[in-house]
Specification:
Blueprint lengths: L2 H34 L6 H9 L6 H17 L2 H15 L4 H16 L8 E6 L6 E14 L2 E11 L7 E7 L4 E2 L4 H9 L16
Antiparallel strand pairs: 1-2, 1-5, 2-3, 3-4
Helix pairs in contact: 1-3, 1-5, 2-3
C-alpha cells in the first residue's frame, strides 16, 4: 500500500470519527439555540465577533477543521477516554440527552455500516398523491384499532443535500414499496440531490 493510499485511509477514518463526535453536538446545540433564542448559525457569528469582520465561508471551513481535529483526537486512547467522559455528562443531562442521543443514533446510521437502524430503501407516495419520495425503513409497528390490528412502517425521509435532518413518517405497510437499493445508494441519492440515481427502480420483498 502506497503512502498516498495510507494517507487517504487515515484522513477518511479521522473525518468519519470526527463526524460522529461533532455532528451530534452541532445538532444538539442548534436545536437548543433555536428553542431558547431562535438564533441561526453556529460558528460564523462567533468567528465574526472574534475577528471583527465577516468572512464568507469561514464558518464552514472552521467546522471541517473541527471535525478533523475531533476525529484525530478520538482516534487515540486518551482522546477517546476524554470523549467518553464528556459523553456521559451529556447523556446524564436532562433535555440534552434526548437530543444528543437521538442525533447520534441518526448520524451513526448514516455513516457506519455496523448500525442496522436503516433496514431498507423504500418508495412512498409523499408529500402528495402522485408525487413519490425515497426513504429509509426504520421499524415496523402494529396499530391497534376497534376493527383489529393494522401494520404500519416507520420511514425516515432525509432532506437534501444534508441527510441528517428530514421527516419521520408512519405509512400503512401496503403503501410502502421496498426497493432493490442499498442504504449507501440511498444516501448518495439524497446527498447528490438525485444526481447519483439508479437508471431504474426495482421492487424488492419487504424484510
Amino acid at each position: 500500500m502506497s503512502i498516498r493510499q495510507k494517507l487517504n485511509i487515515a484522513l477518511r477514518r479521522y473525518f468519519l470519527s470526527g463526524i460522529l463526535v461533532i455532528v451530534p453536538l452541532i445538532i444538539t446545540i442548534l436545536v437548543l439555540r433555536f428553542l431558547l433564542s431562535g438564533v441561526d448559525g453556529l460558528l460564523s457569528p462567533l468567528l465574526t465577533k472574534l475577528l471583527k469582520h465577516r468572512i464568507p465561508g469561514l464558518g464552514v471551513i472552521a467546522t471541517i477543521i473541527l471535525i478533523f481535529v475531533a476525529g484525530f483526537l478520538t482516534a487515540n486512547v486518551v482522546g477517546l477516554r476524554l470523549f467518553r467522559i464528556w459523553e456521559i455528562f451529556l447523556i446524564k443531562t436532562p433535555l440534552v440527552r434526548t437530543i444528543y442521543g437521538s442525533s447520534k443514533q441518526l448520524v451513526e446510521a448514516l455513516t457506519t455500516t455496523e448500525k442496522k437502524s436503516f433496514k431498507q430503501v423504500v418508495l412512498i407516495e409523499f408529500p402528495r398523491k402522485g408525487m413519490f419520495s425515497l426513504g429509509f425503513l426504520t421499524s415496523q409497528i402494529e396499530l391497534e384499532g376497534k376493527e383489529g390490528k393494522d401494520e404500519l412502517v416507520a420511514v425516515f425521509i432525509p432532506s437534501t443535500p444534508t441527510p441528517f435532518t428530514g421527516w419521520a413518517m408512519l405509512f400503512p405497510k401496503n403503501e410502502v414499496i421496498p426497493l432493490d437499493m442499498t442504504v449507501e445508494q440511498g444516501i448518495e441519492f439524497f446527498v447528490s440531490g438525485g444526481i447519483v440515481a439508479p437508471e431504474k427502480l426495482t421492487p424488492k420483498h419487504l424484510s
